[in-house]
Amino acid sequence: MRLRLHEQGYSLITTLLVVTVFLLLGLTIVTAAVQHAQFTAIRVDDVQSLHEAKTDVNEAVSELKAELSEPNFFVNHRIFAPDQWDQFLGIDSPSPGEDTIAGRLHDRYGVVMKDESAQYNIPKNQVFLRALRLSKTFTDGHQTRTVQRLVFVTNTPSFLKYALGSNRDVVLNGGIYVEKGNVYAGQQAYASNTTNYVKKNGELTVALPNAGMPSLSSSSIWYTSDSRLNACGQTSNCWEAAQDRFHMTNNWASLWPTDVLEPAPTIRQENEDFIDVDFDLTVADKLLQASGISPLSSQTRDAYIEQVEAIQEAADKDAELHRLVEELSNQWTSLPINQNIPLEKAIKESPKTKPLYLNGNSVLTGDIDISNNGVNQWLIINGDLRLDGPTNPNTFVSVRGNFIVLGNVMLTGNLRLDASIYATGYTKIYQSKIERAANDKGLVLLSKGPLDISRINEFDNPTIPTPNLKGYFYTDSSATIYAVGSYLYIEGGLFAKGNGTTAPDTDINGLVVNAFRGQVNGDNGEPSRFAPGNHPLSSRLIVRYRPEVLVEQGTGLPFVNRISLVVDRLEVE
Predict the structure, then answer these.
(1) 511 compared with 554, residue with greater pLDDT
(2) Residues 299, 10: Cα–Cα separation, whole Å
(3) At 15, which helix (H) or strand (E)?
(4) How does DSSP assign 448-493, residue by residue?
(5) Which of 123-137, 199-213, 315-329, 541-555 has the highest mean pLDDT?
(6) Contact in structure between 148 and 166 (CB atoms under 8 Å)
């Protein structure tokens, strides 16, 4: 009986122990579940905080882009100097006001905009380029973290991004080689292995030999409006000449031809906004700053703004530019128009402490040096300009200086150039051999009218291809380039905006390039004995992208009245 009671006591104790253990396990599970639920809630809050911070930073970047994307941004907001730009952004104060970009982004999104331009050695007192970091903090557990994006804000014109291009159509005929850089076509893009040229008597000619297809380096990209490229691989009937124009035939397709050796280029759609140059404001800006009227000076800023706004609002901008020249000309050194005094001599004997001015057409046939203490000075010509070098193979005219020409420009003969030329009319480079100056600088040429380049370094067949034309060429209008008999190796770039006027000798609005890959010899001054080549460097037109040549001239970038953003990737720290 006692043994049975002992057994029952042990059983009860065992049962109580088991119940206690399960109770403790249950409490542990419940506690763990509660803690897990709490931890999960905290993590959800952290994830939501991270997502909200990312969203706010991205929306702030989008709003920044929207606020700065007005077509006439600088003029509309009366921003003409870097300090005004900093005030508008709100980066000149640790506590930006609500009337600044930084203040509005902080009030709306809690995003802080910090200027980091100094870290990138940006000369803030000279340029409008800024490096801005947009950031927002959030809580991650017991620590504070930051979401941020670096944004470069610049007024750099988009054409400087490309080796070749146009806002309208781009036509590359024959074996041009883009050694470095990209090609841009704002509308239609065309490529063929037929090339065209014009004889001295004006006869339009379609070259029958296989000229080669355009070739781009492996790192180069052809950007088009719709990721499409129209091509023609036939060697005789991509083009026809009629009624003083080259016209396309119907043998073009949206596929790269299969009967050519060259591989199809990489083609992508350009998604970034295109920032145009305002040519008239650029010329006005150069005229004013050459005269000492600068937005960087508090004494002359109001006068600068008044003149720029007058150009901006004028219905006839050419007439307004002529008015500006007439108004400013009394501040310049006038050159005499005298047939008994060579213009080169008058330039040499004139002081270069201020711009030189010639009221009339001019022909320069000798060495020209328009510089002051090593810095290029301006020659302003109210008329046409012709730079006429010698034709002897080893004799050159050297030209150094900056030119503003309210008329047409013609370059011919053998020239060594260290020059910036702004022309409000058309520009023609014909029967010329152009080399870099002794200081290794070249030519920056911006033209409002059509650009026509032909018969350059004619019938040269170099065994070692080296750049022979260092410069950047831009036209507000359209351009036709011939490199069949010519030989051009451009270190810089070429861009034709295409403002409605067709390219010379064509019905194309934009940029038209004609080139031959291989050797070409002359027969009575006309191309003959075509010897096609397979290597890209045997092309008679090679372009090596190098936008720095514009900055090297010291003239600054052309006037751009819009802002573009370059946005780096989003980071979480």
Answers:
(1) 511
(2) 106
(3) helix 2-67
(4) SS-EEEEEESTT---SS----EEEEEEESS-EEEEESSS-EEEEEE
(5) 315-329
(6) no
Question: pLDDT tens across 420-456, in order?
Answer: 899 999 999 988 887 777 776 778 899 999 999 988 8
Q: Which two tokens stand for residue 203?
A: 């006869």
pLDDT tens profile 61-120? 989 988 888 877 887 888 888 888 999 999 988 889 889 999 999 999 999 999 998 888
C-alpha–C-alpha distance, residues 213 and 197, integer Å:
16
CB count in 10 Å sphere of residue 103: 17
**Separation of first and last alpha carbons in the chain:** 76
How far apart CA 451 and CA 409 sit, in angstroms, is 10
Residue 468: per-residue pLDDT: 78
Phi, psi of 129 (to 5 degrees): -65, 130
What pLDDT score was predicted for residue 35? 57
Q: Per residue in 157-186, is it b (16+ CB within 10 Å) or e — as a string?
A: bbbbbbbbbbbbbbbbbbbbbbbbbbbbbb
The C-alpha R_g of the chain, in whole angstroms, comes to 33
∠ CA(425), CA(337), CA(396), 5° rounding?
65
Query: Which residue, among 22, 12, 71, has the nearest Cα to 562 in the 3D structure?
Result: 71
Q: Lowest mean pLDDT of 85-89, 170-174, 494-498, 554-558, name the range.
A: 554-558
Segment (H or E) for 289: helix 279-290
Phi, psi of 146 (to 5 degrees): -135, 135
CA dihedral 217, 219, 220, 221 (to 10 degrees): 130
Distance, CA of 557 to chain centre: 10
Give the SS3 label for residue 437.
coil
**CA–CA gap between residue 134 and residue 116 (Å, rounded):** 10
Judge whether 407 and 380 are in contact, CB under 8 Å.
Answer: no
d(CA 172, CA 497): 16
Per the CB < 8 A criterion, the answer to whether 441 and 434 are in contact is no
Alpha helices by DSSP H, listed for 334-377, are 343-349
Strand partners, 241: 246
Largest CA distance in the chain: 150
Asked whether the whole model's pTM tops 0.85, one would answer no
CB 378 within 8 A of CB 404: yes
Q: Are the beta carbons of 267 and 224 closer than 8 angstroms?
A: yes
Contact 514, 482 (CB under 8 A): yes
* 571-572 and 564-567 beta bridge pairing: unpaired
Tell me the three state secondary structure of residue 440: coil
- Evaluate if residue 508 carries a pLDDT over 70: yes
Residue 138 CA to residue 154 CA, distance in Å, equals 30
For range 155-163, the mean pLDDT: 85
Asked if 474 contacts 421 with a C-beta cutoff of 8 angstroms, the reply is: no
Nearest Cα neighbor of 135 from 115, 119, 162 is 115
pLDDT over 50 at 39, yes or no = no
Residue type (1 letter), 512? V
Please provide residue 112's backbone torsions phi and psi, each rounded to the nearest 5 degrees.
-95, 130
Count of beta carbons in the 10 Å neighbourhood of residue 250: 8
